[in-house]
Amino acid sequence: MIIIPAIDLRGGxxxxxxxxQASAETxxxxxxxxxxxxxxxxxxxMLHIVNLDxxxxxxxxxxxxxxxxxxxxxxxxxxxxxxxRTMDDVRRIDELGATRIVIGTTAIEDPILLxxxxxxxxxxxxxxxxxxxxxxxxxxxxxxxNINAIDFAQKVAELGVERIVYTDxxxxxxxxxxxxxATREIAEASGLHVTASGGVASLDDIHALKxxxxxxxxxxxxxxxxxxxxxxxEEALDAAESDEADE
Length: 247
Hints:
alpha/beta, 27% strand
C-alpha cells in the first residue's frame, strides 16, 4: 500500500478544499515547494498534485510554476491532475516530467480524445473518477452527471486505462473516513488498479485499505489528515507496511 501525500495548488499556494468547494479553502502553506520537500524528506514515494485553478477554469500560471519547481527539486514520481482537458495539456505536463497524469472531465465528455491520449501516453494516463452518491462529477466537481461511477470505470477499462483515482466527494476534506465499500466495488467491477482518495481520517483507514489490496486497491492519497497532524507520514507509512489489516 503506497501512501501518496496530496498537494492541492491554488494561486501558487498549498491549500485544501472541503468537499471540493472553492469557498471552503484552508491555506496550509504559501510555498508548496517546501511542502513537497517535507513529504520527500519524511519518506514519501510519490506526490499527488492537483491544479485546482485549472480545474475551475481559472488562471493557473502560478500553479504550473510550482509544479515545475517541485519536479525539478524533488526526486520522486509526481501524479498530476486538475483541468487536464486537451492533448496539448497532456503533452505540456508530460514534458515537465510528471510520472502520471490524471484526466477527469475529458474522460467523461470526450471518450474519443481519451482513447487518443491513451494510445499516445499509455500507462502515464490515470482517470480520476470523482463521485457523489455513486454519480460521477466533473468540471472541478461543480457539475454532477447521471453517469454511474462503476459503469464509467468499466468503460475506461475497455479503452485501455490501467489505473483510476477514486474519490468520494462527500468525504473529501472531511476527516470522516474512507468509503471502503464503494472503493472495493469499483476496484472489483473494473479490474483496474485503484488509488483511493477522500476522507482518510485515521490509521485504521489505511489498515482497512490494505485489506483491499487483493481487489486492486494499491495506494491511497492522504491530504487533510497529514496537514492537520492527525497522524504523521511516518506513522502512515508504517501502517501501510504492517500486517495488521483486517477484513
